[in-house]
Design brief:
Helix 2 packs across helix 7, helix 3 packs across helix 4 and helix 4 packs parallel to helix 6. This protein is globular. The chain is 38% helix and 22% strand. The protein is an alpha/beta fold and 494 residues long. The chain contains 16 helices and 23 strands. It has two domains: 277 residues, 3-Layer(aba) Sandwich (Aldehyde Dehydrogenase, Chain A, domain 1), CATH 3.40.605.10; 185 residues, Aldehyde Dehydrogenase, Chain A, domain 2, CATH 3.40.309.10.
């Protein structure tokens, strides 16, 4: 049965853990979480004890030999059933994302859809696991390669995509024959919990997918347990670097996706209305809380003077309010503490001398909601040395830097510590090609505001936005969750 936003009650829900298919209460301390749109308490999340986390790894380790021996077509049947359950509970999951994260229902639906697409990619694992073979590499000698699972894998997703990012992780890892321990973000634990429940309903054997809750202490146990073979993380760059260094030092394979400071270049030959609409969606969608959000616009030549009126008009039209309200265009940020952090950055921008074109402080939600709101904020006359131009704010704050030409714009991007996503708006194929070739970022949009790869392409952050060798998504992720074995054989006399 599908659950719609209006049907979700405001009673505090206590999250459970799942170890070996058994759902139970954690013995760790607990914290109350609040609905970002209303400020009301909705969830009690536990912080698991070290013993509980170790038990989850132990169960996953014990389940691995049996699960890896399950024929690939049988694994895929479970995944197909899981995909159907996700479809059946699509509205329920979207409503859950909206309730605990705050993003609008439309945004939540989009993120759940992208997560289901990742499961669909994992359903193609029989083809993706194919190795290679060469006959007669020597006299009577043949050689083949196999892709084999690693063992226990761990997923540590972020708060901003409670459904989508976990679905990048555990379905593919499990399809490859691994077992898994999921630690959802302690800020949004319920969506991940529900998705684990649904996977077990699909017929996943006990122990293959386990669930624990917590923060750094929980993560540290997972990073150091010798039975964990691979760790997939998404979060801030500082934590990504810590996860990468700690897990790698303990002999694990790691993909750690970090933060971003994404630049979007607007050339003077652009369609300014189209560019403005794309920028508004990219900068203020999900309240700016996504690693592909545009946070700096580099306006080339006279582009700024023609772009700003379109930007401010579009920003003024954004209705801020509860994510569950269908009239809302933008919801709240995740918490009161995060709202204060974003507001401090706006104050900092003023002190640094940037010109406030649109001020989101003191925004009044259109539906009088009492949550954690910051309105769309736009700064002009920003310089690349300002902190608001260099540091990840992770909120609805957009900076405009004026550049003389494309080369200057590329220089600004090149000085950034990050290299996640970038984009250019132009009608010039030559400018687009120069930009795409030279820009030091892993995901590039050309007249596309949010260059989010489909699940069969890698999510390819660079520099301080990624620590590791193999990216999330696509064939990179298949390689990440498997290792290559080469078999060289001779039968009979040479």
């Amino acid at each position: 049965m599908q659950t719609h936003p209006a049907e979700l009650n405001n009673q505090v829900h206590t999250c459970r853990i799942c170890i070996g298919g058994e759902w139970k209460a954690s013995q760790g301390k607990a914290e109350i979480l609040h609905n970002p749109s209303t400020g009301e308490p909705i969830t009690e999340v536990p912080y698991c004890t070290a013993e509980e986390v170790t038990a989850a790894v132990e169960v996953a380790h014990a389940a691995f030999p049996t699960w890896r021996a399950v024929p690939v077509p049988q694994r895929v049947r479970v995944l197909f059933r899981y995909r159907e359950l996700l479809e059946q509970h699509f509205e329920e999951l979207a409503a859950q994302v909206t309730e605990e994260h705050g993003k609008t229902l439309e945004e939540a639906r989009g993120s759940v859809r992208r997560g289901i697409e990742a499961v669909e990619f994992a359903c193609g694992i029989p083809t993706l696991l194919m190795g290679e073979a060469v006959e007669s590499v020597g006299g009577g000698v043949d050689s083949v390669t196999l892709r084999q699972p690693l063992g226990v894998c761990v997923g540590i997703p972020p708060f901003n995509f409670p459904a989508m990012v976990p679905l990048w992780m555990f379905p593919l890892a499990i399809a490859c024959g691994n077992t898994f321990v999921l630690k959802p973000s302690e800020k949004v634990p319920r969506t991940g919990t529900r998705m684990v429940e649904l996977f077990h309903e699909a017929g996943l054997p006990p122990g293959v997918l386990n669930l624990v809750h917590g923060a750094k202490d929980t993560v540290d146990v997972l990073l150091r347990d010798p039975r964990v073979k691979a760790v997939s993380f998404v979060g801030s760059s500082g934590v990504a670097k810590y996860v990468y260094e700690t897990a790698a030092a303990n002999g694990k394979r790691v993909q750690a996706l970090g933060g971003a400071k994404n630049h979007l270049v607007v050339m003077s030959d652009s369609d300014m209305k189209a560019a403005a609409n794309a920028i508004i969606g990219s900068a203020f969608g999900c309240a700016g809380e996504r690693c592909l959000a545009t946070s700096v616009v580099l306006a080339v030549g006279d582009a700024a003077d023609r772009l700003l009126p379109e930007l401010t008009a579009a920003a003024d039209a954004v209705r801020v309010g509860a994510g569950s309200n269908p009239r809302s265009d933008m919801g709240p940020v995740i918490s009161a503490a995060h709202r204060e952090r974003v507001l401090q950055y706006i104050e900092l921008g003023v002190k640094e001398g940037a010109q406030v074109v649109r001020d989101g402080r003191g925004v009044q939600p259109h539906d009088a909601s009492k949550g954690f709101y910051v309105g769309p904020t736009i700064f002009d006359r920003v310089t690349s040395e300002m902190r608001i131009a260099r540091e990840e704010i992770f909120g609805p704050v957009l900076s405009i830097i004026r550049a003389t030409d494309l080369r200057e714009a590329l220089d600004v991007i090149g000085r950034s510590l990050y290299g996640n996503a970038t984009a250019i708006f132009t009608s010039s194929g030559a400018a687009a090609r120069e930009f795409a070739t030279a820009v030091p970022a892993g995901m590039v949009g050309i007249n596309v505001g949010v260059p989010a790869p489909a699940p069969f392409f890698p999510f390819a952050g660079w520099r301080g936005s990624f620590y590791g060798d193999l990216h999330a998504h696509g064939k990179d992720a298949v390689q990440f969750y498997t290792e290559t074995k080469v078999i060289i054989s001779r039968w009979g006399n040479p």
